[in-house]
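ugh ok fine here u go
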Amino acid sequence: MKTLRTIFLSILMCMWLPVSATCPIVRNYSKSDYGAGTQNWAVAQNGGGIIYFANNFGVVEFDGKQWRTYPVKNRTVVRSLFCDRSTERLYAGATDEFGYFSLDEAGWLAYTSLSYGNDTKGPLEEIWKIYSLDGVLHLQNNSEIILYHDGLFTHYSAGMKIDCSAMVHGVLIVATADRISMFSGEQFIRMKGTEVLAGKKIVSILSPSPDTVYFITEKDGIFAYDWDRARKIRTSLDRILTSKVIYCASAVDRYISFGTVTDGVYILDTARDTYFHINADSGLQNNTVLSMMPDKDRNLWLGLDKGIDYIALNSPELSLFSSSLVCGAGYASLPDGDRLLLGTNQGLFQVSFDQEKGIIGDNPEKIKGLDGQVWNLVRIDGTIFCSHDSGLYIIKGNTAEKIPGIRGVWKVTELKTRKGIVLGSSYDGFFTVRKTGGKWILDKQIKGCDDDSGMFEEDRDGKIWFYRWMKGLFRLTLTEECDSVSKIEYFGTNAGLPSNNNNLVNRLGNEIIFSSDNGYWKYDYNSGRMIPAEEINSMFTVLPKAVSFVESPSGDLYFMSGGMDAIAFRDRDSWKVDSLSLKYMKNKRIFGFEKISWPAPDSFIINTDDGFSVFDIDDIRSGSSMAENGVFIKEISVKRENRDSVVFGSRSATYTSGPDFELPYKYNSLQITYISPYFENNESMSYSYMLEGYDKEWSEFSNDNVKEYTRLPHGRYTFRVKSRYSQADECSETSVDFTIRAPWYGSTLAYCIYSVFAALLLYFILQLIKMRSMRLVKAMEAKKEEEIMILKNQTLEHDLKHKSQDLASSTMNLLRKNEILLKIKDGIDLSIRHFEDDEKNRGIRELQKLKYEIMDNIEHDDDWKKFEQNFDVVYEDYLNRLGKKYPSLSIGDKKICAYLKMGLSSKDIAPLMNMSVHSVEMARYRLRKKLELDRSVNLSEFLQNF
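structure:
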């Protein structure tokens, strides 16, 4: 009787707890994405967070950004994987092939075959599982456990086909069709209390705790084993687990996941006793799940018969409906007691909603009379208004009542300064509705403004601010009766805004904030102009461009428009901005129609192009879904012969190909790839880097995980990189040291050669300087001699000029003297004649004596000697040379020669010689004979040229 009661309650529970309407986000990776075979038989994750898949083409590696495939030696299908954290080796089992992948010296993931060349003591066959216990590797094929140690393979037969095996807390459990055994040493020992499992096919063995083991059967449900007795446990999935063919299973936290052959995956939430069902209709690429594994972030990876899928099981985001229940593109949502209203482009729907448990029903029901586009939902004074493409509706239960006279409504809002009046904007302009006799009716169609808008707010003075696309920002002043516009004002650059467009209207408390092309602005009622809203602008280092926001009930700000998706969490009088956690939502939003609702204090709903997404606020705040993988430098590559060549690699923060490395100078252009694997939302992971020895400061944080450096100078460098999830203050950091060797022309030998060349060059330079100095000295000496010669010539010229002047003076003095003396002589002659008449003998004698002395003075004056000296100086020793060549010349002859050299005529010479002109001519005749001149030779010309 008790058994029947238990079965009956279980059936009721299964009927009462349907599949949840919310569903984890599923991400698909097709074979074209990862570039390998269709089937994926096993999943593993290393210590650094990198995911590996056993694929038909080999081992597929994924770090969240990049896919790579590595074949095994015989290129057969890889069936199993095992990451040994102690050795950082990735073991792979294939068909008659077993080995491991590890980093070679260059940093490339290389495969080492352990079966090739070793005596395996028999065929390895298909290796389905790999374990490590006490340093010994345990391999499971179809019917054997094979131990590998120190290069030797030892086979132990289970006696029949092995359905499943698992290493549970240091115990290798093996399940066959007839029993559950524990492999110990060299034998299989039946585990007590497992007789109930005989004849049941075990597909997975899980251990959520040290005290409990779960045996997952193919068609008989779940059995719990406490190391003493196995018993079947009841869940809301029993009907599914006994009707579907289960192929694999996994457990993480409160979730147990079941992979089926024909119907995708079922995920049981053991805490809430609800489950998710995800298949090809609701997001999977294929309904056959061959393998599954929860990663370090507690999210689920599925190896499918065709592709790889990722289920963000621990994500703060859940999709509201699976694709089989899609109600259209989401536009508005509103919680209403025990139901949730959802407005889409196909109409208005309602689903059950348990706010306390956070459970949303899976069966959306359409509100009658509301097909087509829903623009907005709002509750005013206990009444739900639905703004629809066909008008304004009042929602009562599961029906909708239309307010007559209104065509196509964008939005309605309650006026705070005019009680009982609701202002709306339709395709025809603004209008008001009011409640009369318990019924809402159209009150006034406001005149004076033909523009419509879905973005308007009332300010503290009762004026209406609205933004009209392509027209700009306006402020309306309504009449007291609210039937017309008494004043309409335009606000743009004329009022201090940075532009005339994109001035969106937002509400922050009781204040109106305008988002513009350059941050946020507000109206200054004193000046009548716009001023920056510093309380919001101060949140950002770069001011957002035309990004509107919505304030949550708790005072947080949600920025979800344009190119930005962020949350500013209020912390007393300030905000902490998270601009990364929801960054990926940009590709899912409906531009210009972003709406957010808060069904519970710890969650919110965003409308998307395929429905709605529900978010857990606490998970976003804490980032609790992320494991500490740590950042590591995955590889450093250089260009070699037109291809990338890896010179350094790592696959975790502690597993690298070497501590540092050196590169020739010709490989001084590097590409550095770094990663902190995070698969749920890789855009939330940002990186900052610095190359010590080159960069002066850390870079700004960004989502890029590749950095290139070109033409680095030779020297020693340290590349440092740190990662940060979302806006977390904590950072993970790693670094690598490397050296770029000097070029051949910068090597030690080159510098020695340079030193020799420099010494020789210095020597030659010194020699050149010395020779140049000598040339300069000689030139200076020559110049000095030249200047001395010039000075001498100048002196000689001066002396010559002086001598010429003396010679001319002497000649003139001589000429004047002789003339005077001749006149005296003539006077004396005259006196003598006079004295003779008087017979004054004495006087006569005296005068005659004086006459003779004068005559002697004329003929023997010493002035000639001085004249001769000066003449030889002026005319280059002329008289001396003439005397040497013609020694027969007398003093008188020389005088005539000198006077002729000077160009004097016979008439000029006569008084100088105290002779008559005739006597001079006779003297010239005698001179010609002494000079032995021919009659044809002119005496004056001869003497001039001598």
